[in-house]
């Protein structure tokens, strides 16, 4: 018989308030508290805690406090990752983030969800589906990424977007719900903001 943790990791309905999962969330909260309470100059100490919390990290990364997550061990970040203030990763399922990814402030990734119908929801049933973000992605401020989403390589998600469907490689996407606006082209190399050239 599967544990509730194994059901969670397998994308099956599960109960999150059992002893094992509650204990693991409390452990993560202890480490997150330390991350957020450290003096800003204690960067290496903060990085050491993040390395012990996350499942996988690159050699170079920077996460601005405050930061929040559920478990930590389901989070994988690639080389040269940057997250600005108030990053929230509800990592009940895997959150895989590629190399050279940037998060603006208030980015939230939610792998967890609850049933639509109130009866199973009131029984405290949850589910979780992985989120995957490719290499060279920039996520704008106040973006929400919902369970089960994949964002392709080299794409940009505009500020304030709510991502409810997969986003392909090499595009700009924005809105609520988030939709592809256009492809990113070689011409875009010339500009740093709208039509302002380097």
- The number of helices is 4
Q: What is the percentage of strand-forming residues?
A: 25-35%
Order of helices and strands: HEHHEEEEEEEEEHEEEEEEEEEEE
Name the overall outline: globular
Mean pLDDT across all amino acids = 97
Helix-residue proportion:
10-25%
Low-confidence stretches: none
Q: Structural class, judged by helices and strands?
A: alpha/beta
Number of strands: 21
Task: Summarize the SSE layout with pairings.
Layout: H1 4-9, E1 14-15, H2 19-37, H3 43-53, E2 61-63, E3 67-69, E4 75-77, E5 81-83, E6 87-90, E7 95-97, E8 102-103, E9 108-110, E10 112-113, H4 118-122, E11 125-128, E12 131-133, E13 138-139, E14 144-145, E15 150-151, E16 156-157, E17 162-163, E18 171-174, E19 179-183, E20 191-193, E21 196-197
Helix pairs in contact: 2-3
Question: How is this structure best described in words?
Answer:
The protein has four helices and 21 strands. Helix 2 (about 20-35) packs antiparallel against helix 3 (about 45-55). The chain has about 200 residues and is α/β, with parallel strands linked by helices. The protein has a seven-stranded mixed sheet, with no helix packed on it. The chain has a five-stranded parallel sheet with strand order 3-6-9-14-17. A four-stranded parallel sheet has the order 4-7-12-15, with no helix packed on it. The model has no long low-confidence stretch (mean pLDDT about 95). The longest helix is centred in the N-terminal third of the chain and has 19 residues, at about 20-35. The chain has a single domain (about 5-190), classed as Hexapeptide repeat proteins (UDP N-Acetylglucosamine Acyltransferase, domain 1, 3 Solenoid). Strand 20 and strand 21 (about 195) form a beta hairpin. The radius of gyration is 18 Å and the shape is globular. The chain starts with a helix and ends with a strand. About 20% of the residues lie in helices and about 30% in strands.
